[in-house]
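The freezer alarm interrupted the setup, so I double-checked each line after restarting. Inputs confirmed:
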Amino acid sequence: MTATAEADLHDRLMALAERQIAVGEVRGVAAADPVNLPMIRHWAAAMGDANPVYTDAEAAAGSAHGEIVAPPAMIQVWTMPGVDRDGRQATTPVDDVLRALDGSGYTGVVATNCEQTYHRYLRLGERPVPATRFAGLSGPKRTALGEGYFVTWNITWYSQDEPVADMLFRVLKFRPRERKTKPEAREPYPLKPAINKDTAFFWEGVGRGELRIQRCADCGELRHPPGPVCPSCRSVERTHVVASGVGEVYSYVVHHNPPVPGRSTPFVVAVVELPEGVRIVGNVVDCPPEEVGIGMQVRVTYRQMDDELILPMWVPQES
Amino acid sequence: MRTLTGDQVEIGSVLPDLVIELTPTAIVSTALATMDFTPVHHDVGRARAQGSKDIFLNILTTMGLVERYVTDWAGPEALIRGINVKLGVPAYAGDTLTFTGTVVACENGEFTVEVRGKVSLGDHASGTVRFALPDR
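Predicted 3D structure, all chains:
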């Protein structure tokens, strides 16, 4: 990549990171099983941890805890996705950043820090819910593994809205040093948006992780799709605003046939109503089509379709 | 098992070493007990295909072992408040993981132990564990 392209990529990644920080805390899926003795017992046996407060009801009753408690370091275990790792998982504000780094050649990943704080021990029957916040992106830095970005996020686990534990997790996403061959060029995505003087601002926004809506510079009316003249006051002066990135499915179709180049079917095409007051057409992804419905709360995500094209799409706000 | 009391712990107290043989069974059973089904923790072929020399310990287990290391010494009622770990080299099947630790701080009833988990390649994990002891 040229120095300019690198700088552009860096700006784009940092803009995306800023937006993901602004998303704030996103709740995930509650633990599949409540805190339970069999899972604690398996864990303690595998770890070789003989602490009786985890497994022996009598000893636990006589301890400072007064009852069986879960090992605090098990906190993340309760909300792990399980065998079906590609199954239904809540999207988090971290996903887009990791994907953007993957798409930019930072395909290697290694965890560097795991910091957990336990506010209290969990008791049997509690069902923790994780909530993820994107915390930051720093780089590019030269490391022993290759050049990379450090990606940091926080998870807080709640039990009935009470925070019980926090975690900071940091990974290094790096460009592996030794390239087997030349870097795999992505298959170009066959469908290209028409970019012209009226729409260029929108696609520039997408490149920076912003969902931009055209606004009449005279009367202030928002309009989408963008056009040359304000339908309200006929002014040709225009500017734009940056949408919050959330919306609601106003209508949608599930496309099964005919085949579409570059896409696998079925996929969802939705009309998303934005709180700013306009509607926008886009795909709903990371969600089985049968679970999409009118009124569904969605938020924008940016998908790298090939080396150049990024498309805004929509994912469920919470699962 | 007895839990230590505050006057039995002071800055500079050294924890006894804990040595864990990382058999394939240890790697796989801990990965599954922590609900981590990522192939590199149980499938040698997949681990090698991505450039690792064997299956290796997952992070949730590293956290669990660090916790166990401290409570094995401090006692069952030691209240673990937090674990901060910097992750280093992978802990591969066939290697031996040895934990060492020293008490480095004691403030307002909260103790901090500096912990290091070493394997043949170097530090697998290093960091701190914060805990409190029950009032007697």
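Quick read of the result. The radius of gyration of chain A is 23 Å.
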